[in-house]
C-alpha cells in the first residue's frame, strides 16, 4: 500500500499550487541555485537589494550548512557554464599596423593588426574588407586580419571612412614583412 502512494501521480497533499518560483536578477536562475553560479557574490548583492526577505532565508540556510567555518564546497569543473572568463583588453597604445607579406612568388597579402584595441569586431571588419576590395579576407590571429592582395595603400583611406573614431595618424605602415 505504501508503494502505491509513492507512485501516485498528480498534485501532492502538502504543496500549495500554483508553485511560485523566484528568479535571481543577476544569474536568471531560481534563487536556490545562485550559490552554484560563478559570480555568487553579485547574486547575494542583488538579493539583498531587491528581495531582502528572501536574502535572509538564503543567509540562514548558508549559516546552517557550514557552522564550523570549514572550507567551501568545491565548484564543478566539468560541464555546465563553468566560470565565465572575460577577455583581458590590453591597455597599450591604440594603433593599427598595416603591412604587406609575400604569398608565393609574385602574390602578396595585406596584414592588419590592432583593430581590436578600438573595440571593432574582427569578423565584421574582415567581411567589410573582403567586400570592399573584392577579395578574400579572414581573421587569422587574436588581433590579425589577412586580406588577399596588396591593398595596403587603400586602407589608409578606407579605415577612417568606415570607423570615424580611428584617425589616419593612428595607422602605421610597417612596409614589407615576412609571415
Automatic annotation (TrEMBL):
Which Gene3D superfamilies would you find in this protein's record?
SUI1-like domain
Write out the biased-composition intervals (Basic residues): 75-87
Q: Which Pfam families match?
A: DENR_N, SUI1
Q: What domain of life?
A: Eukaryota
InterPro entries xrefs: DENR/SUI1_TIF (IPR050318), DENR_C (IPR046447), DENR_eukaryotes (IPR005873), DENR_N (IPR048517), SUI1 (IPR001950), SUI1_dom_sf (IPR036877)
- Gene Ontology biological process terms in this record: cytoplasmic translational initiation
Q: Which residues form the signal peptide?
A: none
- Residue ranges of every copy of the SUI1 domain listed in the record: 96-163
Locate the region Disordered: 62-100
UniProt xrefs under PANTHER family: DENSITY-REGULATED PROTEIN (PTHR12789:SF0), DENSITY-REGULATED PROTEIN HOMOLOG (PTHR12789)
Give the similarity note: Belongs to the DENR family.
Protein name from the UniProt record: Density-regulated protein
Q: Which organism is it from?
A: Hypothenemus hampei
What high-level taxonomic lineage is stated for the organism?
Eukaryota, Metazoa, Ecdysozoa, Arthropoda, Hexapoda
Amino acid at each position: 500500500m505504501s508503494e502505491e502512494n509513492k507512485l501516485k501521480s498528480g498534485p501532492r497533499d502538502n504543496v500549495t499550487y500554483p508553485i511560485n518560483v523566484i528568479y535571481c536578477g543577476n544569474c536568471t536562475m531560481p534563487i536556490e541555485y545562485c550559490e552554484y553560479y560563478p559570480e555568487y557574490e553579485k547574486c547575494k548583492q542583488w538579493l539583498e537589494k531587491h528581495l531582502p526577505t528572501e536574502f535572509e532565508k538564503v543567509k540562514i540556510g548558508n549559516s546552517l550548512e557550514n557552522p564550523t567555518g570549514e572550507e567551501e564546497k568545491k565548484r564543478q569543473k566539468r560541464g555546465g557554464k563553468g566560470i565565465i572568463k572575460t577577455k583581458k583588453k590590453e591597455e597599450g597604445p591604440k594603433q593599427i599596423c598595416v603591412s604587406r607579406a609575400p604569398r608565393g612568388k609574385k602574390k602578396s597579402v595585406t596584414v592588419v593588426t590592432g583593430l581590436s584595441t578600438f573595440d571593432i569586431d574582427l569578423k565584421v571588419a574582415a567581411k567589410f574588407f573582403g567586400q570592399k576590395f573584392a577579395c578574400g579576407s579572414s581573421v587569422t590571429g587574436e588581433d590579425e586580419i589577412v586580406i588577399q592582395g596588396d591593398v595596403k595603400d587603400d586602407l589608409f583611406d578606407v579605415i577612417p571612412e568606415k570607423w570615424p573614431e580611428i584617425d589616419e595618424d593612428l595607422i602605421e605602415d610597417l612596409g614589407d614583412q615576412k609571415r
